[in-house]
Design brief:
The protein has 359 residues and is α/β, with parallel strands linked by helices. 41% of the residues lie in helices and 14% in strands. The longest helix is centred in the first third of the chain and has 19 residues, at 79-97. It is globular. The chain starts with a strand and ends in a 9-residue tail after the last helix.
């Protein structure tokens, strides 16, 4: 049977990069979102609201996917609401697809909040896990919408008989406009504003993150693991961490990012300087920059997500992720993290999202 992929959340960082890779590998690829405009050739867009089963029925009426890749979520005010809404999104989609009897595999993208806790209890003292983070670590004894999403996949798989895989990236580095968790673009926008104002590129986070070991996940690496797990029987019905495969310290990487943009790097000075506060009044500055350089997105809030970058860079512990499980099964993709950022910055310039950098 031909492989027919349904990428749920195709407009996001994970979904758009996955759709690009699926097309490159010859899959028939559908991209579902409320506003599916990934700009990827050969991706067939489907517009639907995951909280509205009727809209899903309409959008999927002529589509029988063999593989479903669920890469999206919706942030709510409380974790109780996160659980209610995000579990319903998974449940609604799989319920609409079940009568087709076409689905062979479902992949769900979650993240390291599986180990570190949800937004309102993120990396708090008293619940900090042992690092490196490993897939066999037990769930935390607190509510977490990632667990609810997983449970919906497990329940549907038991009923319909498809295989599944769970993928837990660290911070995803890649391009997407309007994404709520977008460190790479946030730092590019912040560095651009620092250059415009003649200010140093000041480290916003904690001492533990500045000095400790960390890792991130290139969206292209995540895409390859998603497809690898779908194609590899030994990887079915398992959860996998996924990062670039290298480790770094921000005290090493931060000056390199500053150098790329031609700004002065300022390291940890004993105080956390949250980007959410630092960039709170930068909307007008960004509009001026966008106008002067003919950029395609003048809205700062569409590009930067400082609140989420603050969560990552303000953690009180170092975070490193164990990749042994997928390595043992043959997944060998590797990506240098500094190059992940530089590739993204180059793409953002080419697409006129940030101004060209004279180097």
């Amino acid at each position: 049977m031909d492989k027919v992929a349904l990428v749920v959340g195709v407009s996001g960082i994970a979904g758009s990069n996955l759709a690009t890779e699926l097309v490159a590998q010859g899959w028939t690829t559908y991209g579902l979102a409320r506003n599916p405009n990934p700009g990827i050739e050969h991706v067939r867009p489907l517009a639907a609201d995951l909280l509205d089963p009727a809209s899903l029925e309409t959008a999927l009426a002529g589509v029988s996917p063999t593989h479903v890749f669920f890469t999206t979520w919706m942030r709510q005010e409380t974790e109780v609401d996160n659980i209610r809404v995000n579990s319903a999104m998974v449940r609604n989609l799989l319920a609409v697809l079940r009568p087709k009897n076409s689905v062979q595999h479902v992949a769900l993208v979650t993240g390291l909040k599986h180990y570190l806790g949800p937004f309102d209890a993120y990396a708090k003292a008293g619940s900090l896990p042992q690092t490196p983070l490993r897939e066999d670590q037990p769930r935390l004894a607190i509510d977490n919408f990632y667990y609810a999403q997983e449970d919906e996949v497990y329940a549907a798989a038991a009923q319909a008989g498809f295989s599944w895989s769970i993928h837990r990236p660290h911070t995803i580095i890649g391009k997407a406009v309007g994404n709520m968790m977008n460190m790479g673009t946030t730092l590019a926008v912040y560095a651009t504003i620092c250059r415009e104002r003649g200010q140093p590129f000041r480290w916003p986070g904690s001492k533990a993150q500045w000095e400790g070991i960390s890792d991130v996940t290139d969206a292209r690496v995540l895409a390859k693991q998603l497809i690898w797990a779908a194609n590899t029987e030994a990887a079915h019905n398992m959860a996998f961490n996924i990062t670039n495969g290298d480790f770094f310290r921000w005290s090493w990487l931060w000056p390199q990012l500053a150098s790329y943009f031609g700004v002065e790097a300022a390291g940890f000075d004993g105080t956390i300087h949250p980007l959410e506060a630092t960039m709170a009044d930068d909307d007008a500055v960004w509009r001026e920059i966008a106008t002067a350089h003919n950029l395609i997105e003048p809205s700062l809030t569409r590009l930067a997500s400082p609140w989420h970058t603050d969560l990552d860079l303000g953690r009180p512990i170092e975070v490193m992720t164990d990749m042994s499980r997928s390595r043992e099964l043959g997944f060998s993709v590797y990506q240098r993290t500094d190059q992940s950022f530089f590739d993204l910055f180059n793409q953002l310039q080419a697409d006129r999202i940030i101004p060209a950098v004279t180097r």
